[in-house]
Amino acid sequence: MLDVITHITLVTLGVALLVAFVRLVKGPTLPDRIVAMDLFGVLVVGVIVVLAGWSGVRATLDAAIVIALVGFLSTVAYATYVERGDPQ
Amino acid sequence: MTDIVTGILWLVGSAFTLLAAIGVLRMPDVFTRMQASTKASTLGLACLLIGAALQGGDFASFIRIASIGAFVLLTTPVSAHVIARASYFAGVPLWEGTVLDERRNAKSGRRHDKSGSIDAASGITHDREANPGSGSR
């Protein structure tokens, strides 16, 4: 039964990734795209965690930690870039 | 038994993350989008993490899952605050139905940049040379 639920979960997360990707493409401003990229990081971490919990391959959790870290740092860096304007 | 609890938690968590994505797509404003993304994705990812932690495994993987959860719960509000602050001061247009803008008539400090240094088409424009009077940032 958990196999079916895992597949449903993964498909739902994939649909969420697609929807966030639509916002990433549409924009209209740069902070909208930053929000979409931030959501991307959270969704990818969710996919990795669900796959690790389902398959028992726990080594991918390290990748999830790294993706969460890099996502947060990139969000802060992009926000700094937006707040300062274009660096001259 | 743990499979049932894990399944319920994963379904709830994926539903919440899908709601976050739909909120990011459908909300009218960058601030409301950020609000939908932050709230729903935090709860959704917490549900996914708890469900994965219930699936046995050794102590090291449990520690990793717990550290991911603690890190996400700590950093998501910080990143949301940083995005909101940057986009507000950079002059991202507010939704026309916005009820309250507390810094609209602020006497001190920085205000919302009405000159619109963020362009709708291209993100950040490079119009410092075009109107030098708007260099209030």
Structure, described:
The complex is a heterodimer of chains A (about 90) and B (about 140). Chain A has helices at about 1-25, 30-55, 60-85. By secondary structure, chain A is mostly helical. Chain A has one domain (about 1-85). The radius of gyration of chain A is 16 Å and the shape is flat. The model of chain A has no long low-confidence stretch (mean pLDDT about 90). With about 140 residues, chain B is mainly alpha-helical. Helices cover about 60% and strands about 5% of the residues of chain B. In chain B, strands 1-2 form a two-stranded antiparallel sheet. In chain B, helix 1 runs antiparallel to helix 2 and helix 2 (about 30-55) packs antiparallel against helix 3. The chains are: A mainly alpha (about 90), B mainly alpha (about 140).
Query: Looking at the chains present, what oligomeric state does this protein adopt?
Result: heterodimer
Structural class by helix and strand composition of chain B: mainly alpha
Q: What is the terminal separation of chain A in angstroms?
A: 58 Å
Shape verdict of chain A: flat
User: How many individual helices of chain A?
Assistant: 3
In whole angstroms, how far apart are the ends of chain B?
57 Å
Uncertain ranges of chain B: 120-137
Q: What's the total number of strands of chain A?
A: 0
Largest interface: A-B, 55 and 63 residues
Radius of gyration of chain A: 16 Å
Overall 3D form of chain B: elongated
Order of secondary-structure elements of chain B: HHHEE
